[in-house]
């Protein structure tokens, strides 16, 4: 759990006592490739800190996956709205390769946060960072052409281009796989 502790310290000041209080909230959980961390219509009861592997968030629109996010090592995967409100999720979160996570239990986290201000601050900053990543993706679509979106990923998120399949990447960029292949060829 050292990677998680490093992540926490990168977000906020966090005492040894707060870490001790947080430990009972956490469980390590492994997922096989294609396992679901969260399914559409379920309530999200967890934050998933990714230790190893990566996962994707996607909507199923008429039998077609529409990828909206990828979470890699050192990031948190969750459905912010469902986690905060207790409403059902409108999308899926699925492992794209074998995945090792540290799971924050929602109820236990809320109880710990009510008692310890450092834990409440951590939760707030973690959710803010996750929301910021989602907003970044939305802005890419508002501001950039297809070619510019791909170039943005090359410059700012090259790990996506190295690890994510062409099918998932094209869905994430909102283009056909053939279009993505043409864009990539132009960049060579």
TrEMBL record:
Residue ranges of every copy of the Cyclic nucleotide-binding domain listed in the record: 10-109
Xref: InterPro entries: cNMP-bd_dom, cNMP-bd_dom_sf, RmlC-like_jellyroll
Coiled-coil ranges from the UniProt annotation: none
Alphabetized Pfam families for the sequence: cNMP_binding
Gene3D superfamilies: Jelly Rolls
SUPFAM superfamilies: cAMP-binding domain-like
Organism, as annotated: Chitinophaga tropicalis
Protein name: Cyclic nucleotide-binding domain-containing protein
